[in-house]
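Problem 12. The chain below contains 352 residues. Write out its predicted structure in token notation.
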Amino acid sequence: MKVICEERTDREIPESMIISQSDDGWHPLKDPNYVEWWYFDLTNIDGSLVRGQFYIIGDVSRPNKVKTGVRASLVKPDLTEVLIDKKFPYSSFRSSTEVCDVEIGGNYLKGDLSHYRLHVEDGGKALDLEFDSEITGFKGRACFGDVRRYMIWVVPQPRSRVRGTFRTEEETLDVEGVGYRDHNWSNISPIKCVSYWDWGRIYANEFTVIFANIVATRRFENAEVKPLMVYDSRGLIFLTTEAKKWTLTKSDVKFDLHRRMECPERYSLKAQDKDLFLDIDLGVERVFQEIDLIADYNPLVRLFTRTFVADPFAISLLSVGSGRLDFSGQQNALTCTAIHEFVNNRRQRSLV
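Solution.
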């Protein structure tokens, strides 16, 4: 079986990857593997960061099997983390299929590709943000085996200006910085189809780099899905889904006893094509929002899954570094900040 993903390289967003309002709406599926989430993050001017998701999981024709909820983290400059993590029944979920208008309990995310508002609350904690787009987004698709089994990635806001507040019982913190928002849905079983993936967004001066490196399981011949997008302040300057055009290398890999997996401490991203050369080195500064992806399973199912199928775990990372971007005869030195994630469905597998 093979992974089907169009391979191409462009200097503008091709028609097949242009997003519409409905791409950011709800895509309910009557499928036990259905999962959909709306993601957001930002780096604050004071060095703190915010990251979160609205999500729904499960066959929508079987309401008792559906899980939905919201999650948001504030990581302060001193590395302390304030977490909101609320789960709700399917009856608490409401969304439009035409535009982004999601409500889960008293939480919501609403917008029109150029501007979004979100609210997340839990008791004495509340997050309120507004995102104003700076550049145009894109969408991508990968199919596993045939076109009926797929993953969709929509990025309405590769880069945006963000303002708002994060309120706790002790204080109200102003939030202002640069942010990102995307939207994903699929009807595949990630733990059966995907071995691991790295995803991230890098903000470097006026440049924006968005990447994903998804590595399939042996059932799908360990195929790689590797989209990479590079923007300047005006818009897209480079897009490729050709695996040979760029690399993501991990180093200083150490086994972490708490997470029971190998974790890199450094990342290197390199790309080259005609008049473009990109070289970025990142060092991990913080690890946060760690998630055992099958923690909510029935204990016996969880034990069977860990023993015979997969042992999935996700971590979020803040990294900083430097690099170089040569484009159209101009050389640009880069100072980089990245929020990225590493999802490892095969924790026993070595990264190197």
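Discussion. The chain has two helices and 26 strands. Students who got a different answer should revisit the alignment rule from Section 12.3.
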